[in-house]
Amino acid sequence: MLWLILSLLAAFFESIKVVLSKKSMNEETNEYVVAWSMRFFTLLFLFPLLLFIEIPVIGNRFWEALFISGLINTITSVLYMKALKLSDISLSHPMTTFSPFFILLTAPFILGEFPTIYGLIGVLLIVLGAYSMNISKFKEGFFTPFKALVTEKGPRYMLAVAFLWSIAGTYDKVGLLNSSPIFWAISIHLFLTTVLFPIMLIKSKNRSTKKIESNIFDNFFIAKKQITSNIRVLALIGLSVALLHICQTIALSLTLVVYVSAIKKLSVLMSIIFGYLFFKEKNIKERLFGATIMVIGVVIIALTG
Fold it and tell me: Does the pTM exceed 0.70?
């Protein structure tokens, strides 16, 4: 049962990443700095693994997958951090469970594949769970629980992330098949570190001063100051992501992908509990209840798909 332990550890490190990411963002440190730092420090921790793995033969579609997945994940890296910054963890992070929902919606049009009855049940549970996260607002109107999600920027951004991840996941699989799991993880983080760097410089304005305009050199030193003043927590984010990849990769080598994916979704429940413990988030019972239903839906889709 080593795969189960490793999958649970992957879920744990995923939830730790979420908590640390939210903790790192404040008036002085913006989401662009955190997004770049997460990729950069993850790369630093993963890069030495090249000394211990066999460098794979690059397949024909590796560069195509790297480019497309890299561009999509550049967008999701920023949206993910924006979502965590603007909303409670217990409200925004569960929206990531909508990825299989979007896959099942788009599969008939893109791949000609139609969901099974179990897939439809899983989808309904995901939607029902999302509804239940704001069930206390039901008295204001039947659709009010859904409106409460889409009117808040955090959950809305995370829904966009879930949708984009459902597309990027296909190309991640292509990249894995045309290289190896660790080599792909290093490659995609190198791509993201490179692409996010100029975006971080452009967006890294000092919000604590009244200076409206700044050039790229000013922004470089502003970003540097933000990173150095928060380097411990930013490095821990990178370490948690690196450990997540290592645990997940080994688990995938021991069992089926669907099993690892299903267990890893428990990170949603863990992050909600951590959100309550570390940030004193409200309405935790109904959010935990709703997220549990969503995770059950994801597990049904994963195990019966």
Answer: yes
**Structure tokens belonging to residue 267:** 């990170």
Secondary structure letter of residue 53 according to DSSP: S
Q: Do 76 and 141 touch, CB atoms closer than 8 A?
A: no
Q: Which amino acid is at 3?
A: W
Domain range list for the chain: 2-304
Q: Which tokens hold the place of 39?
A: 């990729």
CA 140 to chain centre: 32
Quick one: DSSP state of residue 207? T
Provide the pLDDT for residue 209.
47
Q: Which two tokens stand for residue 198?
A: 């100029």
Residue 111 neighbours by CB under 8 Å, 6+ apart: none
Which amino acid would we find at residue 262?
A
Tell me how far apart the alpha carbons of residues 74 and 194 are, in angstroms, rounded to a whole number: 10
d(CA 174, CA 224): 35
Structure token pair of residue 127: 């939607």
DSSP state at residue 266? T
Burial class (CB in 10 A: 0-12, 13-18, 19+), 248: buried
Examine the pLDDT at 210 and tell me if it is beyond 60: no
- Residue 185, classified by CB atoms within 10 Å of its CB into exposed (0-12), middle (13-18) or buried (19+), is buried
- How far from 46 is each of 200, 202, 236, CA to CA, in Å? 22, 27, 13
Q: Which of 153, 189, 177 is closest to 70 using CA atoms?
A: 189
Please tell me the distance from the alpha carbon of residue 156 to that of residue 290, in angstroms, as a whole number.
17
